[in-house]
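User: Sequence in, structure out. Go.
Assistant: Echoing your sequence, followed by the structure tokens.
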Amino acid sequence: MNEILKIVNDISIHYGSNKTYDKKDLVKLFLDHSSFEKFMVFFISSHEKEVEVSDDYINDILKDYDIEKSKVEKIFNDIKKPKEPSFSKNKLIKKPSFTKVKESQIENTSKETKPSFNKSEGITLESETNDKSDSGINIISFLIPIIGIIIYATQKQQYPIKAKAALDSAISGIVIGVIVGFISYAILLNQISSYNY
């Protein structure tokens, strides 16, 4: 890299430019061009318009500085290719640390030490343990379906299992009610028609 930097600064001085280039400048110039040859054509042509920069011209410059073209191309390609991250995959993965806990420590933990979430989020550990189908609510929802629908609408965020069971019972109650209503109507019509004649 230092040899290439010396060539670039010598060319700049040769053409009377007051700019000296450092490694950052050189890397930026390299990144702007697809090959070392195109970089040299751009760089020399920007200082002197009438020079025809060919491969032989570039090779002569490299020979004057006793640098092999393959070494320069390797440096150029190393700068152009993306760098791999310096951290390892193992450092990204956190490994759980398990410690032995005595049974007496587990038994002595109080219920108050259980973690709970903010009520505004609608989730607590207590609600998860109480979220199971309740047969009393299901029977009431079956007999009076509007209550099951109201329970579902108000409790579906906090107690989703219990709310879904109440809704299912309400729907079952509606379906059974409609079927029983049709059967009752059919029986009533049958009795009315047999009673008149």
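User: And one key feature?
Assistant: The mean pLDDT is 76.
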